[in-house]
Amino acid sequence: MVTIKDIAAKAGVSIATVSRVMNGQAGVSKSKRHRVLEVAQELDYNPQRTTDKTDDTTPEIMVLYLGLNGRVDLEDQIGYGVLLAESCSFPGQSEVEFYTSDDLDRAMNTFQILQNNEDEDLRGLVVIGSMDSRLKKPLEYLRGKGTPVVLAESDVPEIPPLLRVYYDYDNLFKTLQALVPRIDKSHKGLSLYGSERDIKGQGFCKAPYFNRLLDFASDYYGPDHIHIQNNGPFNPELFEETSLLILDNEKASLEAVRYYEKQDQRPFIIGYGTGKNMIEAMDRNKLDLLVYFSPYKLGFMPVYALAKRLNNKNEPLPENLPIFPEFILPGQVDYLNFKEVYPLLIDDKLKFEAQIRPDKDKA
Description:
Helix content: 25-40%
Distance between the termini: 64 Å
Strand content: 5-15%
Oligomer: single chain
CATH superfamily of the largest domain: Response regulator
CATH class of the largest domain: Alpha Beta
CATH topology of the largest domain: Rossmann fold
Number of domains: 2
CATH architecture of the largest domain: 3-Layer(aba) Sandwich
Number of strands: 12
Strand order of the largest sheet: 2-1-3-4-5-11
């Protein structure tokens, strides 16, 4: 029997997107809507024959994706990661239900059902992105019952989760710091473009640990040779005396590429993003390095980690699970094109190992 889960998997979108298309709701692009309907027809989907969940039943695992700084347009990429994690972990009937900020009222209704009916239980909860104030009481209730909670790029200081999943900005800046003297031996000047952070990993110059890179750069270039632009269209006038340009935003990266295409010389450019235009710029050697944080992993890793614990109570999990940045060179364009179609198949497998304790008796 074909379900919306089957359609989502084949179309490469989230279950929530398929549900919106099938219910005639807005919020789905024309191309995605066409793709979903095409796959539904191909699989001979008949909603009358399905047994999808109804509003008065509760899922076993809830995943809430609430965006970050208002950005929720990565729903399909994160939802697809959730779907793949579910397929890897629960190869049978659906165990996971994916909610977005548009579904928050429905999620709150599910929480209310759980609190009113002691026979109903939730095996686990994953929250991805910004925390809505309405979730505080349900989270406190679930943690009080011992329900495992995983937070991904999210934070509730007063509620200790089972696991935190986050983008590893610390490792990003350590890597950049090590790269700078190797790729810019002239160290004539460093220019940085900083934008607002979002859940895709853009805006990393506004992230914690950024000052570490800035302190190092100040010593390497001298404080008078560091130029920073915060937000707005890329302004080349600010970066005339520069030998290395770092941009943390895909739009600004493309603006810089277009500008320096018309110049006789250009600095070494580190851009951000993996959109088609970025890949084309890499292929034409207009960009020297790409920084990329995978939104697919932000959906995949917390659900997969929670499933490992639920399937094996003795499975040791770390308290924190970082998503490492990827540094893509022009020669890896084929790799990037492959990831656009198969985003997780060539990612490193998750490995959880018990923390090794040093031998106290050892000298």
